[in-house]
Amino acid sequence: RWVTPIDTILNMHKSMLQLNMFLIVAFSLTNWEVNCQSTPNVSYPLVMIPGTAGCQAFAILKNDPDQKPLPVWLNLKFFAFIKHFTEYFKLQYDAKTGQSYDADGVDIIFPGWGETWSIENLDETPNMFSEYFGALVYVLRKDPFYVSNFTMRGAPYDFRKAPNENVKFFDKLKGLIEETYINAKQRPIVLLPHSMGCLYALWFLKKCDIQWKKKYIKSVVFSSCPFGGSVKTVKVEASGDNFGVFLRSPLSFRHVQRSMPSLTFLFPDSRLWPPSEPLITTPTTNYSSADYERFFNDINYTVGYRMWTDTHSLVDGLEMPTGIDDIHCIHGSNLSTTDRIAYDAPSLFYNRFPDQVPLLIPGDGDGTVSIRSLEYCRNWPGVKYYILPGAEHVHILSDIRHINIVLKILNANITHG
């Protein structure tokens, strides 16, 4: 057969292609660990940040140092003995310093840093009613890559406080992420914050430089995030919340709940709840997002206004984080959610405002946070947005739809129905 110039050119081209393919394969193999983001079957490590009341808490009694730490959150027996719960768990606020402290005679600790047990189930004796991240952790353990306190981490913190008081959280979380990155053979992590944990994540990401975020964080998954706050927090500040325990009045828990600066940290943002829209109505006056000082004066808790001024501008929940290439936003909808709070005039049957159980005027949301706050992330360019109708604020973490989304983002090697 005659070898034409065209044959020569084609053979040279074929040889070059083979050489290129060899070099590409060799380069990929030698750089697999460093460049694992481009490898389709690689699972990514996970760091979870819980929200309000989202991790176990224990009390150390100073007058009895030999006693083992006493579980206080979540401890169902304290719903029967509320006085003890309040004595242990309340904070004392110093208006001069803007700092809050544990009650006299007790130290409250939030153990399990880096581990998952304290956020899997909120009760020391796990049960279905207090499950939190447990379902997700259970599924992930089916992939041998995911090991608690190694490639699957929890970041518990004192959820009673806003970020300005949890100053060590930033350095601890940064170190945890870097450690997890190394544990996972230099694979960047997926950050999964829930509820108020999302605002902590935004606060953290704002403080980190772009180069660090590009290296260590693959994705951020905001779950049930109150980007613009929640009306429910105003109701809790005024009249308390009974955590769904119907045998107890919400007023029973108000004292301890009011002592937590994280409550005012989550007050509705005036950019989403304008001054023209009342949050609370009474027979004599209304309160909007422009009336927080008057509100706290009228409920006779002026220190609450100081807490709000200290915390409300710590994090701009409406501002998209920079330096993160892959942002996801997941929340529930179509559940009755407090949108306005109405109080009756005092009578034989009703105490004076705010010492009564008010009427809760519902709107759309996830049962805790209104839809306008949850969905604000839709305004961020490039965000991957998921809405799960019927998914409740906390139980969304156990929702198979939510779990499947997270598994896909993690690229977890799990097959399940």
UniProtKB/TrEMBL annotation:
Transmembrane regions listed in the UniProt entry: none
GO terms under biological process: lipid metabolic process
Alphabetical UniProt keywords: Signal
Signal peptide span: 1-36
Example GO molecular function: O-acyltransferase activity
Keyword hit for Transferase: no
Protein name: Phosphatidylcholine-sterol acyltransferase (Lecithin-cholesterol acyltransferase)/ Phospholipase A
Species of the source: Schistosoma mekongi (Parasitic worm)
